[in-house]
Amino acid sequence: MKPNDIRKIWEEGRCVLNGWLSIANAFSAEIMAEQGYDSIGIDLQHGIVDYQAAVSMLQAMRASGVVPLIRVPWLDPAQIMKALDAGAYGVICPMINSRAEAEALVSYVRYPPNGVRSFGPSRAAISAGANYGQEADDQVLCFAMIETAVAMKNLDEIVTTPGLDGVYIGPADLTIGLTGMKYPTGFDREEPEIVENIKRILEAAHGAGIKAALHCGTPTYAARAAEWGFDMVTVSNDVRLLAGAAASCVKTFRELATASLSNGVAASSKEASGKSSY
After folding, report:
1. Cα separation of 193 and 96, whole Å?
2. Total number of domains constituting the chain
3. Are 106 and 205 in the same domain?
């Protein structure tokens, strides 16, 4: 089986840079996969992506060698097992709130005797290579998302779940879960109480010997997170990157066009003024 390069990066003591796909399109996935990310997650929870589209996106990403991950919609064995059978090298599961839910998640990701995953890696047996059944449990990653007040109360029990590779922080939901709508929604949190809880999750994960990942809105904040010790950082997503680049392009054009028009009007006025003096 082709090894999971995320594990290699961690063995070298480096932070994984993860991209994020919410647009259901194989071509945009292929473009993102060629930009130098270590891994890329396909979002089946909040993204506009169904299973068939996700398979096509995984196929498009394969040529780049980037490690493919999938965030499943929920703690659902069918969704998790199908994501892995499609060729994902890791599953990120939202809203894990207890040790029991974390144990269930792990069981859906691992084959017996480590779990209850049913064998039938339809595409993974091709894309990941030979001996998939014997090696998948050692290569596939299992992330539980910590993003609620309940999960924070049960944090120590969750991070010590056998077979769990890491926790993935969703800062927008975590902020809402801990403070309601006290603060504006979003990723790159600066509120001391939220930053404190983010760092608490990081410390709990490392204390239990597992990894910690953080979803970020900007590369600047992601670099800070890496300095804090996060093992994986996700920066923005295809929707925001496309919107941001398009908005910047339009803004630049409007500014330059307006300046050009203003200069043209001024020149015309000067010329007209010169002619009227004769």
Report:
1. 21
2. 2
3. yes
Q: Are residues 34 and 70 in the same domain?
A: yes
Q: Are residues 174 and 271 in the same domain?
A: no
Verify that 114 and 247 share a domain, yes or no.
Answer: no
- Whole-Å CA distances, 118 to 80, 94, 123, 191: 11, 21, 14, 43
Q: pLDDT value at position 270? A: 66
Tokens representing 91? 């599953």
**250: how many CB neighbours lie within 10 A of its CB?**
10
pTM of the model: 0.93
Distance CA(100)–CA(182), nearest Å, equals: 30
Q: How many other C-beta atoms are found inside a 10 Å radius of the C-beta of residue 149?
A: 15
The single residue listed with the structure tokens 């056998």 is: 162
Token representation of residue 197? 């809880």
Helix (H) or strand (E) holding 108: helix 99-109
- Over the stretch 153-210, which tens digit does the pLDDT of each residue have? 999 999 999 999 999 999 999 999 999 999 999 999 999 999 999 999 999 999 999 9
Catalytic residue among 5, 25, 46, 179: 46
User: Is 215 part of the annotated catalytic residue set?
Assistant: no
Segments forming the whole domain that contains residue 259 = 243-278
Per-residue pLDDT tens for 248-262? 999 999 999 998 777
